[in-house]
Design goal:
By secondary structure, this protein is an alpha+beta fold. Helix content is 35%, strand content 27%. It is built from twelve helices and 19 strands. The chain has helices at 2-42, 51-55, 73-77, 137-144, 151-163, 174-179, 184-192, 246-249, 303-306, 356-360, 369-372, 428-498; strands at 61-70, 84-103, 108-119, 131-135, 169-173, 181-182, 201-202, 211-219, 231-234, 269-273, 278-289, 295-300, 329-330, 336-337, 340-341, 344-347, 375-378, 385-398, 413-425. Strands 1, 2, 3, 8, 9, 10, 11, 12, 13, 16, 17, 18 and 19 form a 13-stranded antiparallel β-sheet that branches. Strands 4-5 form a two-stranded antiparallel sheet. A two-stranded antiparallel ribbon has the order 6-7. It is elongated.
């Protein structure tokens, strides 16, 4: 009987140790297998899970525009602060499709990406025909160029802004401001000098709808998973040519849709944005949970990204032609109409994180972190961006220009025109696909590990506890037997003595 009990105890110990050992041993083995499977899944190779998703992004992308209506244009001409009122959103659904895809032998893929925008009135506060009073980009582009162009061009610009009655402010529709309109001055100039004035269409997003933004060559991850999605070349080069330093012109990071898997919180993530002609730095900010229950890592730009060149010397390359204060980024070098630079500066909406003097120079600014910061929420295991919001504000610089009487009393100011929120959130269908094909199996495997380790530990502890209990009970029984035997011996001695 005792032999059977001892054998059960040894069996319990052995089984508990075995389960514990298997559970612990599975951790590195399973992690290795998972890593290999994830790498196979996320590389940009025809036929794998993520390739079709990357090629034809199924996640809906929305471009929302918030327009600023200047309510006191005549007072501004006399030196008053601009008073603007925001109205929005005017929402467009954005569709991105990659085409002319060429897989290269060095582990890269080259492609173009077509972007189309369709207005969604039911998600908007009004129609595309809503009108706004805003600075006239053609006027300010032409008069600002007077300081830099030759006398013949200066004469033509003077003619255009007087004879054609180009005005400091304009009142146009949302559709015209965004996607373009035929400008009368440019139309006249194009007929007069088509070499300088090659178009008569003006708008902040002309040539952005139903077009591509350039030729990308990115790493597929097949030869080096840590480079997955990173841009190797843009339009055949690793550098831009807009800025004054090599660092400022560098094309770094991804296009912000796909990143290498197995992220670390210490990793700095870069994203290249062609519409602002630079790469943007992102650092880990916090963990967040989305509506589908995914734990995501949120990346935001550090304050150094918007700092002036005194605080962050790296930004000296963007001082073209001069340095701006915190929160403003001069875009005139990469925003051009007919070879004339538009005096545009980019900021976060409502000059969020910008110098206080910019915020106070315009009545109607209400910067807010939740509404105005740019965020990227990525799943750290696979590296895919499941939620993102890029928020930017377009500001036009207006100032007194010698020889133009209408401008002489203007107080120099960066006047907001509009701000945009380009956002994407994974939908229920694709979230369920990721859940079923990737995250659920991962959870099951990790659950098996936990069950084995827990069950093995419980069985081991229970067996040891039982052995201790059995040993204590046996010890007590032996002591009782010894006491009984001692009493019996004593009684026997007494009995013998009496006899």
């Amino acid at each position: 009987m005792e032999w059977c009990t001892v054998r059960k105890q040894y069996c319990g110990l052995g089984l508990g140790l075995l389960m514990l050992a298997v559970g612990v041993a599975l951790i590195p083995i399973v992690d290795y297998i998972i890593k290999r499977e994830v790498e196979k899944t996320v590389i940009l190779k025809e036929g794998n899970l993520m390739y079709n998703t990357w090629r034809d992004l199924p996640i809906p992308i929305y471009m929302q525009f918030y327009m600023f209506d200047c309510l006191n244009p005549e007072e501004v001409l006399n030196g008053a602060k601009p008073y603007v009122v925001e109205k929005g959103p005017y929402t467009y659904i954005e569709k991105r499709i990659k085409y002319d895809i060429i897989h290269n032998s060095n582990g890269t893929v080259t492609y173009k990406q077509n972007r189309t925008f369709h207005f969604v009135e039911k998600l908007s506060v009004g129609s595309e025909s809503d009108r706004f009073t805003t600075p006239n980009p053609v006027y300010w582009s032409l008069v600002s160029a007077l300081r830099y162009e030759n006398k013949d061009i200066n004469w033509l610009i003077n003619l255009l802004t007087t004879f054609k009655q180009e005005y400091v402010f304009m009142n146009r529709t949302v559709k015209e401001i965004l996607w373009g309109y035929q400008d009368p001055a440019l139309h006249f100039a194009k007929a007069y000098d088509p070499e300088w004035f090659y178009t008569d269409i003006a708008g902040y997003f002309i040539n952005k709808n139903a077009t591509n933004d350039g030729v990308y060559t990115i790493f597929t991850g097949e030869t080096d998973i840590t480079k997955l999605g990173h841009i190797d070349q843009y339009n055949g080069s690793r550098y831009l040519n807009f800025w004054t330093t090599k660092w400022a012109n560098m094309i770094n990071g991804t296009d912000a849709t796909v990143n290498p898997p197995f992220a670390k919180k210490s990793r700095v993530s870069y994203a290249f944005a062609s519409d602002v002609c630079r790469s943007i730095k992102g650092v880990f900010a916090e963990e967040v949970t989305d509506s589908h229950g995914f734990t995501l890592w949120r990346y935001t730009s550090p304050d150094s990204y918007v700092a002036n060149a005194t605080v962050n010397p790296d930004n000296i390359g963007f001082c073209t032609p001069n340095c701006l204060d915190k929160g403003l980024f001069n875009m005139s070098n990469c925003q051009i109409i007919d070879f004339f630079h538009i005096p545009v500066a980019i900021s976060l909406p409502h000059f969020y994180l910008g110098a206080e003097r910019y915020q106070k120079a315009v009545i109607g600014m209400r910067p807010n972190k939740e509404e105005h910061q740019t965020i990227i929420d990525a799943e750290p295991t696979i590296g895919w961006v499941l939620r993102a919001a890029k928020r930017l504000q377009i500001n036009l610089y207006i100032q007194p220009i010698k020889g133009f009487e209408l401008t002489t009393k203007i107080t120099p100011v960066f006047l907001p025109v509009l701000w945009l929120n380009e956002s994407a959130v994974i939908d229920e269908k694709n979230a369920q696909m990721l859940q079923n094909m990737l995250f659920t199996p991962l959870k099951v495997v990790h659950m098996v590990e936990i069950v084995l380790i827990t069950a093995g530990s419980v069985l081991l502890v229970a067996t040891i506890a039982y052995i201790i209990y059995a040993w204590q009970r046996r010890k007590t029984e032996i002591m009782k037997e010894a006491e009984t035997s001692s009493v019996n011996d004593t009684n026997q001695l007494l009995s013998n003595g009496m006899s």
